[in-house]
Amino acid sequence: MIPVLRRLALANIIANVAIVVTGGAVRLTGSGLGCPTWPRCTDASYTPNGAMGIHGVIEFSNRMLGWVVGAVAFAVLVAAFLHFRRTRTAESKRLMLLSLGVFLGIPAQGVVGGITVLTNLNPWVVGLHFLASIGVLAAAYALWRRTVDGGTPRRAAAPAPVRQLVAVLTAVSLAVIALGVIVTGSGPHAGDVDAHRTGLDPQTISQVHADVVFLLIGLSLAVWFTARATGARRTARAALVLVVVELSQGLIGFVQYFTGLPEVLVGFHMLGATLVWLATLSVLWSTRASGGRDGSGQALPGAGGRAQEERGLGELQLDQGGRAAVVGHQVDPRVEEPVAAARNGVESPVGDGQLGR
Residue 144 pLDDT > 80, yes or no? Predict the structure, then answer.
């Protein structure tokens, strides 16, 4: 059941990214009020009529895609419930609760989307609609990662300073996304010619957004260097991916700003925002190991690594003559017989397949 659930959970993430991008397309094409009311498309029908033109088709298509996203979330919920019925473990219960949270987030998103229509695309409500999608994405990502981990216990895989730095990084990443929403609310792409804007100065809020982006990139590099220095290689790899995504997103942001915010680039920038968030979540999850492995992929004590650790804490040393010695009265993990401690700096000779005393 876990492989099926894992695939469905990944499809869940893709579907939620897709609904964000298509929602942006609705706004960028000026189709935000293509269906001027909610939950119906018109006062008399749930579907658009020919007189509503292409804008009605675009808005109605996005609403229908919401049903597809809901169907995927429901399939994940059913798979998680069946997995829980079969295993009855604490981890399978967490999977079921996470899947339930994602599923309930879909109709909640629909309600917020309806409010945006009923308020004539109030920019603050539109921004809330996007941020709610970010929250659903976080839950969907957590669900998928738990299916990948296979329900094994999780533990710290990076030193405390790295985990604290990653926590700050996550908060700043969320702040960057929120400021991007505010920038959008002050810009020209309102979703309809009659929709209001926030009234904030676009240049000022864009500069604030850019400043926090630079902070985010700096923090990401700091996480990368710190993780490498402390041996948390999994976190270092995730941080490097995040830096690449951030630089790509930043390039799109600067180009769109200095070219007058063309709709296509703005759409790619919205997609990039979801990718930055997912890459941030990847860094956050990389600080917690599962399956008895640490951030460098090595076995952790308490799982497969404990037996090996208990076999010996000393390090086997080989001199130029190929003789073996250890420091202290310990057990060499690479041989079956115990190694006597070297005394007075004299190594114990090895001969006839036995260790000398």
Answer: yes
